[in-house]
Amino acid sequence: MELTQLEYFITVSKFEHMTLASKALNLTQPALSHAISKLEDELGMPLFDRSGRNIRLNRYGIQFAKRVEEALRSIEGGIQEIREWSDPDTGLISISYLNILGVDLVPNLVKEYKQHHPKVRFELFQGNLGDLDEHFDKGSSDLMITSKESAIMKHEWLTIQKVPLFIVVSTQHPFAQRTSLRLTELSGEPFVGLKKNCGLKATLHARFENTGFQLTSTYDAEDLVTVAGFIKAGLGVSVLPQTPGLMLEGLVWVPIAEEGWEWEIGLKWRKDRYLPAAVKPFIDFIEQRQAPC
Question: Which residues cross the membrane (predicted)?
Answer without folding.
Answer: none
